[in-house]
Amino acid sequence: MSECKVLWKSVLSELEVLLTTVSFDMWFKDLEPYTVENDKLVLIAPLNSFKSINKNYKDQIKKAIENSGAKISGIEIITKAETDNYTLSNEEEKEEDDGDTVNMFDPGYTFDSFVVGDSNSIAYAAAEAVAKAPGAFHNPLFIYGGVGLGKTHIMHAIANYILSQNKKAKILYVTAEQFVNDYIDSLKNNKDNELNKQFRLKYRSVDVLMMDDVQFLSGKTSTQEALFHTFNDLYQFRKQIVLTSDRHPRELTFLQDRLKSRFQSGLTVDITKPSIETRIAILQKKAYAKKYDISQKAVFFIAENITSNIRELEGALSKVVFYCSLSGRSSDDLEAVKDALKDCIDVSSHVISMDSIADATCAYYGIKKSDIIGKRKNKLISNARQMAIYLINDMLGVPLSSIGEFFGGRDHTTIMYARDKMTDLSKTDHLIQAQINDIKSMLEKK
Ligand code: ADP
Ligand code: MG
Q1: Whose CA is nearest to atom 1 of ligand 1?
Q2: Which residues contact 368 (CB under 8 A, 6 or more apart)?
Q3: Does ligand 1 have an atom closer than 6 angstroms to the CB of 151?
């Protein structure tokens, strides 16, 4: 055995005692002694990122060298590519060899293109903090919420931001399914007992690990084991971890308790369904970004009728735009908009909008719509108006200011008064309760 191999063997056996198995396996086991130069033992590492070993394990390395009695002053980590020109005293680092920072992130998913509203403002703020100082706070950041509400968008926004500040940042984005598949592959390729080396390199040499949709982590214990160790290793080095899921970590029932508690050890934030205001803002932003020509009326109609999911909201927007441009109809014509959307919303049966609620309410009380929109004040008309305001707020969640606009530019305090009055009555007055139910069922059957 060559001199440097003997040296390394003795230092390595001391390191094994000083380090946890995980750190030892991850960072030291695969180093290959190359030569001794300037009193230092030169080791070849599989990746550039191993150069941080000297900093991260400074004390342990020093101690291991002392304990082994090896006559060296330290270790030096180089990559294979550097062995040729290594003897040059002024060692140039070939950072390009590292070149796997391909931007795999959707350039359209940025913080700028993300509309902030009550439903996502906390997640947004947390994501921004993480992007500005990865690993410093909120580790891990766990974002959960229903389908199509912006989890992936916000994750990519974090990555795009970090890369805009540092092109070389190593950010690994995977879906939980990919992680599981990678792990299974690594087991298959487990030749000459190099237990899933590729896998470990891939997952533990990153600055930021992003795992999307962790609800798809299968119940396999060994995969969870691998994730647990990956997590701990990254966490220990203050590498940022970002996770998303469709539910709170405590509801990931198939997950080992220790992973569940790791997932919750940083900051857990949710994204909920957007309010109508946010839906309108999202539609306007998308329409503007895509240079779509679409009427305000159509935007309101889409926002009123598609409430559950932002992906569908976007889909409806392009449907309307394309339908109108192909058919030559104007998006100002609500019938055209309804035709465009007849597959995604049940337009024929119940499109519930401010208009349809006002219509149903008027029909129920036998009055004209122009009366409740206008200023007439007799008791029947005022009651009907208050009922319509209450129902619009209750069924559509439309903000008071927009309801005010709808009712001929009334002040939002007037609207609030009407809503509060009806809310109280709806709890105490049986007649009002019955009327509310009647009108609602008219709307639903329509
Ligand atoms: P999830 O990962 O939660 O299922 P996505 O991140 O894929 O949802 O979002 C679905 C679509 O909705 C994407 O096109 C995304 O850009 C858009 N989207 C979601 N939330 C917002 C938002 N707040 N502002 C702008 N676009 C959004
Ligand atoms: Mg997603």
Answers
A1: 148
A2: 362
A3: yes
DSSP symbols for 82-130: GSTTTTSSSPPP-GGGG------S-TT-SSTTPPP-TTTHHHHHHHHHH
What is the distance in A from the centroid of ligand 1 to the CA of 189? 37
**CA 159 distance to own-chain centroid:** 11
Spell out where 203-249 has E strands: 208-212, 240-245
Q: Is the pLDDT of residue 352 over 60?
A: yes
Residues whose CB falls within 8 Å of the CB of residue 178, separated by 6 or more in sequence, listed in order: none
- The pTM (predicted TM-score) of the whole model is 0.62
CA dihedral (371, 377, 378, 381) in degrees, to 10, reads: 40
Q: Is the CB of 110 under 6 A from ligand 1?
A: no
- From ligand 2's centre to the CA of 314, what distance in Å? 15
Mean pLDDT over residues 238-258, rounded? 93
Residue 294, CA distances (Å) to 51, 282, 285 in order: 55, 14, 12
d(CA 4, CA 414): 85
